[in-house]
Amino acid sequence: MAVAGVIAEYNPFHRGHAWQIAEIRRRLGPDTAVAVCMSGNFVQRGDFALLHKGARAEMALLGGADLVLELPTPWSAAGAERFAQGGVSVLAAAGVVDYLAFGCESGALEPLQRIAACLDSEPCRAALRRFLDKGMSFAAARQAAVEELTDRETASCLSQPNNALAVEYLRSLRPTGIRPLALPRVGAGHDSGAESDFPSADAIRERILSHGGWRAMLPEASTAIVSREIEAGRAPASMAACERALLARLRRMSEEDFRPYDGGNEGLYHRFYDAVRTAATLEDILRMAKTKRYPLARLRRMLLQSALGVPQAAQGETPPYLRVLGTSGRGRALLRRMKGTAKLPVLTKPSHIRRLDREAQRVFAQESLCTDLYVLACPDLREAGPGGEYRAGPAVLPFRKGDDL
């Protein structure tokens, strides 16, 4: 029986995600188990997740996933390379995953594999440095370097966000033995507001945040969970809802304090500090710091990482534990198998934290502080108490027919 891994944010879990899980089982067999590495409370675009990770894990299980493992903040709120590095390492450390399934605009592996191989070559690294020295943004310089060494059609794949992320998955997969499974991306484009049977996560978030008509845009189970979280005062969360707290933290930082969050070591932190000392709002900070060289997504991540006090993970750094956010009956069977295969400690309850080594406990404590800030974005402050990471257990679905592996 195959086990397919997925790296996701599920912010929130929508029809396109449900289609992907169904397509995995159509291609690999109906008994395929699906293990998800899901972002915690902060996401790659540099924002708070709309719903807390426990609710999103529950959505994933009701949408067909079997096991949900957490991707901690140093990787979930990072650029594509570190995001992929963290997600792949979590799934590989479980020791049970045969395939990594991912959506991409190309729908085909071959051009993405060519790009991945090219990016890891010394000629490409040299070309990239040359284009960066001309003042190009990282994304544009990378695409130009790949085009110089392959061809325009191949390099153009990098202009599409899911393709670009898929390339990073392929680069991280090489030493793991996990096989890639490329799936076509369905529905509205990434961050698109276009009407579709498969609306984008961005369009759905916009409707929920603006209290628009969003219920018909989600699967029934997701709709019920979002409604429950809104009624409980725990959602929707957003960076804007926590703006004053974030501004207070940023304004207490010295110019040198911003240096660890300048991922490219290009002096961006000087510009960012100047914006913080001048601007009145978070959007003003981003607007003032933005240039052609530094895209908005990178600046949003830098802002979030600075406010959290959590730089993105370093090259080669991987999560030190496997935290279970949710499991179905089949997922519990996977966990039993992982007792003999997992290369990292598996946390299924808060008391397991005491078993971690010092470094893993440091990462968990850092995650707890991030969550204590995240909950301040809850609409109802009565839901914003600290210390939740040390009390929360995984979402659990009952056994269903066929759940045994």
Give the topology.
Layout: E1 3-8, H1 15-28, E2 33-39, E3 42-43, E4 47-48, H2 53-62, E5 67-71, H3 73-76, H4 80-94, E6 99-104, H5 110-119, H6 122-133, H7 138-149, H8 152-156, H9 161-173, E7 179-184, H10 201-209, H11 220-231, H12 243-251, H13 268-278, H14 282-289, H15 296-308, E8 322-327, H16 329-338, E9 346-347, H17 358-374, E10 395-396
Parallel strand pairs: 1-2, 1-6, 2-5, 6-7, 8-9, 8-10
Antiparallel strand pairs: 3-4, 5-8
Structural class label: alpha/beta
The fraction of residues assigned to DSSP E strands is 5-15%
* Estimated radius of gyration: 21 Å
Mean pLDDT: 94
N-to-C order of helices and strands: EHEEEHEHHEHHHHHEHHHHHHEHEHE
Q: Characterize the biggest β-sheet.
A: 8 strands, mixed
Percent in helix: 40-55%
Q: Strand tally, please?
A: 10
Question: With helices defined by DSSP (H or I, 4 residues minimum), what is the helix count?
Answer: 17
For the termini, the CA-CA separation is 7 Å
